[in-house]
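Researcher: Watch the backbone:
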Amino acid sequence: MRLGIRLLFAFFLINGIAAFFVLRVFMAEIKPSVREVMEDMMVDTANILAELASEDLAAGRLAAGADNSSTSPFAQHVRRYATRPIDAAIWGFSKQSLDYRIYVTDTTGRVLFDSENRAIGADYSQWRDVARTLRGEYGARSTRDVEDDDTSGVMHVAAPIYVKEQIAGVLTVAKPTRTVQRFIDRAERKVFMGGLLLLALSAAVGVAVTLWMVWNVRRLRDYALSVQGPADGERHDPGAPPTTALAVPEVPGELGDLARAMDRMRARLEGRDYIEGYVRALTHELKSPVAAIRGAGELLQDELPAADRAEFATQVVQQSERLQRIIDRLLELSKLEQRHHAEGRAPVALQACAEAAIGQTRARAAQRGIMLALSGTGSNGPWEAELVTMALTNLLDNAIDFAPAGSTVQVELDDATVAVRDSGPGVPDYALPRLGERFFTTARPGGERSGSGLGLAIVKRVMALHGGQMVVRNTGPGLRVALEFPAS
C-alpha cells in the first residue's frame, strides 16, 4: 500500500472516530440541555404563582364551586392568561399559544384548582411533584401522555404555597415538551450539518496535507533516483564524470534535513566513485607507455649498435610525447568538467572557429599527406570561441589519425552545425555508442592504438556546456562527427 493511501486511510479513520463521538455527544446533550433550561424557568414561574395564589388559598377562595370553577381573583387571572391572543416570533419560529397548565392542591393532595378543569377534586397526593413538595422537598416530574411517544411528555414543576409560614398547598406548573421540540430539532439539524461541514473541511485539510507530504516525499524519491548509480544491466563508463542530479528539493522540517543529508551523501559517493574510476582508467592508459619507456631505457643501458640505440631513443621520445598528450588532455578535460556552462558573450561565427582549428592542425595534416577542406556557411551564436575551436581541433586530430594518406578531411558548415568527415575505415557499429567515453579508443588503420581516448571526451563535454550534442555516424567510407549547437 502506497504512503499516500496509508496516510489518507489513517487520517479518515482518526477523523471519523473523533467526529462520530463528538457529534454523538453534541446530539445527545441538546435535548436534556433544552429541558434543563425549560425546567429552570418553570421553577421561577411556579414560585411566583405560588406567592400570588397564597392569599386566595388562605381565604378558601380557590375551592371550586358546583360548576367546577373558581371565582377567586387568582383563578380568573390564570384563565384570562390561557385565553390571551399571542403571536410571538422566537428566533424564526412563531408562537401562537400559551402552553402552561396550572393546578393547585391542598395539604392532602386533592386538586382545588385546575386551569384546564380536568382534574378538580382528583387525588394527586401520590404524584411526585405534589408528594415531595408537601414534604418540603423539591418536587418535579415528567409524564408521557402516550407511553411509547417521547414527544408526548409533559414536565411538571411544583412550588409550595405558604400560609403563615406553613405549607398550605402546592402549585404545579405543567408544560408539554413538544412546545420546545422544534427548537431541539433545529439545534440538532444545525449541529449535524455543522458536524458534516467540519468533517468535510477536515477531510479536505487531510487530503491537502497528505498530497503535500506525498509530493515532498516523491521529490525526495526523484532526487534519490537521480543520484543513484546505473540500474542493473546498464553500462556505465567508469571514467565518466558524475551525472548531473536534480537540484536539492526545498522541503521544510525533517524532510529538508533528510534532503540535505542525501545531498551530502551524494557528493561524497559521487566524488569517491569518480576518483576511483578516474584512477583506474588513467592507470590503465599510463601502463602501456610507461612500460615501453622502461623497456627501452633498460635496453639503452647495454652496448647497442647505433641504429638500435636510435630506434629505442625514438621510442622513448614518442612514448613521452604520448604521456604528455594524455596529461595535457586530462588537464583540459578536468577544467571543462569543473564548469557548468559556456561563457559566450559576443556572437561567435562557426566559420571563424573552423578556420582557426584548421590553421592549428594544417602542419600535422601536411606531414601525413592529408588535405583539409572547408565548405558551407555557418551561423553566429553566443558560443565560447575558444571551446568551439578546441572541440574542432580534437575532431581534426582524430580524423587525421584515421584518414589515409592523400585523402581529404572535410569540414562542413551548415547553419548551427559543423561536421568533420574523413574517408578512413570508420568505426565498428558496436563502438559508435561508446565514442566520447574517456580512454575509449579504436585501432588506427595501422593496427596501433596510439590515441588517448580523451579527444572525443573533450568534444562531448564542450557540447554539453553549450547545450548541444555530438552526433557520430559511419559514412562508408569514413566517419562523420557533427556538432549540433542550439539555434540562437
The longest strand covers residues 153-163. The first helix runs from residue 3 to 59.
